[in-house]
Task: structure prediction
Amino acid sequence: MGILESLKTLLFGKHDVGGGKQDEKPGSAKAEKPADVSIGKKASIIKEPKEEKPVADKITVGHVHMSGCTGCLVSFADNYEGLLTILDKYADLVYCLTLADVRHIPEMDVALVEGSVCISDHLSVEEIIETRKNAKIVVALGGCACYGNITRFCRGGQQNQPQHESYLPIGDLIDVDVYIPGCAPTPQQIRNVCVMAYLLLKGNDEQKALAGAYLTPLMNLAKAGTQACGCDIMTQGINQGLCMGCGSCAAACPVRAITMQYGKPQIERDMCIKCGACYAQCPRSFFSFDVVNQYEGIMEAIDAAMEP
Result:
């Protein structure tokens, strides 16, 4: 092989001369385009499936913060991935001081109101009235919104802010539809009320019936008034022969004002902050037999709704 043939081999590869074909000159060589190359099988294009939203018809929810410690909002956030499921499938958060960049209270389906109202602050009074006007369902979230809680003891004597001399639960100023008492309420209870509110507004007939059975006792609790005390356990529990000594009231008390003695709760009235958590936690208090009889169906509906 000569030098010229060696260069051709390096530049154009070794040609098959067995078939009688002569090597083409470099000047006359026709370069093959990608389109001219024959491919036996075309490569298949993989298309990723489009993301489908589970629920298109969401409800709108807002969190209205009055005078409180933000503990109820922390409890709401403690649902973790459950909170993300609620916001992804069932609810759009349209108002929240810490999570939504909205200055004025918009129209919404459900308003979760945390904290009591300082009646010396005209802006707070206007906001709670505007909340009632713009929300279809108003939920008092936590002991301060339901009963005043520890803000009941904040009447006057504040050297740093003497103008804040009176706080009231929101039920003393507007009509409230649902109570979620406690200091703070459990994340599970807040989650359950959110799911049931959605089913009540957007569910089918069976789901609306279950949601109504679950929410009716909480609605009746809102109608009962804005006063709460550890004495409720004594007058509406023990004195009625309903106490079974389970200790749920003592476990729920945030200030440890209840101790169990001889199998019954003992109330330290001087320590009570009037949050209503003890009576709300008692399994034999305000929850009716309508809820107990449908407990399995209610929990199945909640579990199904919270599936990712």
